[in-house]
Amino acid sequence: MTPVDDVELPGRKLGRAGLLLAQILVLVLFAVLAMRLWYLQIPMGEHYRELAVANHHQQLIVPATRGQILGASGRPLVNNSVELVVSGDYHELTGMDDGGRKVLTDLSEVIGVPLEELQKRMRLCGPDVSRPCWPGSPYQPVTLADDVEPSVALQIMESSDRFPGISAQAQAIREYPQGEHAAQMLGYLQPVTQEELEAREDLRTQFTGIDMVGRDGVEAVYDAQLRGTAGRRVLGVNNHGGVMEVLSETAPEPGMHLVTHIDLGVQKIAEAALAEGMANARPRYKADSGAAVVLDVRTGGVVAMASLPTYDPEVWRGGIDQGSFDQLLGEEANNPLLSRAVQGTYPPGSTFKVSSLSAAAENGYSLRSTYACPGSVTLAGQNYQNYAGQGYGPISLHKAIVISCNTVFYNFGYQMWKDDGGLYPDGGADEAMAEMARGFGFGSPTGIDLPYETSGRIPDREWKRTFWQTNRESNCHRGEHGYPEVAKTDPSRAAYLKLLAYEQCVTGFQWRANEAVNFSIGQGDVLVTPLQLANAYAAIANGGTLHEPRIGKALVSADGTEVRRIEPVVSGRLPVSDETLEYLQGALTAVPKEGTASGAFAGFPQDEVSIAGKTGSADAEGRQVSAWFASYAPADDPRYAVVVLVSQGGTGGATAAPIARAIYEGIYGFEFSGQVTPDVEIAAGEGKPQIPGGVPPEELPTIRPDGSINVLDR
């Protein structure tokens, strides 16, 4: 018997130590294997059990029915219609020997959609898959055709043996029963983006792959409440992906209805009157766009908000095609998606004088004194004129508002600029005019429940320096090299532009006298939105309270059992004394009776409803004059603020004030003045008051348990 020490292996001799080492190695390997098995079965056991179950279960998100958007009386502004949709079962069709080609070919003949198009729609979307494709789950019915005729749907359902894997079913689609009315306020739906998924947990946890999300208007702001809570369906599937059974199901919870402050009748009148007023201003003026805002001065509720040009949101239904989208954004369309009331900014002209008068009165200028109103005035070497160069001699500030005397306010702007130190202020300047304007809410968003609200602009010394720094490099370049492209055709203008650029390069940071003078009458670099102006005049009307305007009034559950009131929000107080406020109110009340708006309100029954307001005619370089009228009524017991703007539409008294009059006539049911066409009368319902008694409803429309709506009887 050969000793162990003498055992020979091919190529070498293995001694006792080597064998011991081999035995240890085998034991270690067995130990590692045992540890791995323990790890997989004990710590990771639950994880792998879930994966095993997942191989046989698939969870499907079931979207909820979106809530309606209702007017103040309960009339639907946006609701859901039901249309018939033809869908395909992805796994059943793709699992066929021919990939479902024969079934889709037969279907193509019935629904009139080319076979190639249907095959593309059956593809699952991915990074390398172009549209059309299916963005949802393969366990959802894949939409192949929508809005099909009932007879076509019936033919498919009755021939299930010919169309295996194909179904026809009803589906809720967003509908806009009022057409283009209030389009910018309401908004629209578009497919959810990756950015929105990452930003919103409610979308991530309820994402179906074909979700639509509010893209603008209140559809966007109240999207989470309107969309409801998605349901969940757990499907049992085989190893080929085929659905075997429904294992469990949680029903979706419908979205809440949004009840708004919008009075549909007033909205229609505002739009019709605005369109007619713009048409009357042409062809003398371009009158290229306009806005009208009606606010409840006591709550900030948005009763109406018109913006022209507008569009019919039906274009978004079912997904907008590229041609229609390009047309909406085209130059000829003049951007109808833009809400001129909330996103458009314009010089306010003389409607801004309520802020300038308040700044003067709160900074030492007496309300009881008289002030010179010459036809023109020279300040810091520059001449400034009244409208048409007319002078009125010494007048009160009351009359300065009534007749809109510019020269009184020019002097205020200039003197207060000098008090601040002029070009070379010593220390911090008070800038009382700019501070007062900000106190009226100008230069900041109002906080309305709409997206993309603009801030407007209140220029001051700090703004001027920032603007100078931003543009200095360009100005210095032009100041040195000039405008050779302009010099080819107009040498004198090129020389002027070069000098101006050099001046802006060197001293463009200075807040100059002419800027302060123009600021005082709402010109120059001052920009406001129609909504900001309406909110400021609403605050004057209600005694000084600034609200955050609200379109939403309440959220009500689909069965009416839950009601969430959207309470008014106070954003601030006008920084003026009661004496100044009462003085302003008295002056504004006289404007439609004996001032610049008296022609527009001739014959209006002011003994029944007295109007307080101010006209404005605003200039901007390279543009025609724009028309403003800012107002509220009744002057003695204010309820509504109405502001009208017609961009490049002429003077406020001639163009904007008649539009505001038509809106008031519609609200209170007065006989129309003849300054508007029958279109406005039709919108008003033949002279019927749109808001009986002049008081908006406090109560809400009733949502019945079956989801039907009891419209308020007004």
Could you please describe the fold and organization of this structure?
Mean pLDDT is 90; it is low at 1-7. The protein is α+β, with helices and mostly antiparallel strands and 714 residues long. Helices cover 36% and strands 20% of the residues. Among the domains are: 4-41, no CATH class; 59-260, Penicillin-binding protein 2a (Domain 2), CATH 3.90.1310.10; 349-519, 3-Layer(aba) Sandwich (Beta-lactamase), CATH 3.40.710.
Share of β-strand residues: 15-25%
List low-pLDDT spans: 1-7
Rough shape? globular
SSE class: alpha+beta
The CATH homologous superfamily of the domain at 59-260 is named Penicillin-binding protein 2a (Domain 2)
What is the count of DSSP helices, taking H or I runs of 4+ residues? 25
CATH class of the domain at 59-260: Alpha Beta
User: Can you give the helix content as a percent range?
Assistant: 25-40%
CATH topology of the domain at 59-260: Penicillin-binding protein 2a (Domain 2)
Most strands sheet: 7 strands, mixed
**Rg from Cα:** 35 Å
Number of strands: 27
| CATH architecture grouping of the domain at 59-260 | Alpha-Beta Complex
- Average predicted local confidence, pLDDT: 90
Kindly report how far apart the N and C termini lie. 118 Å
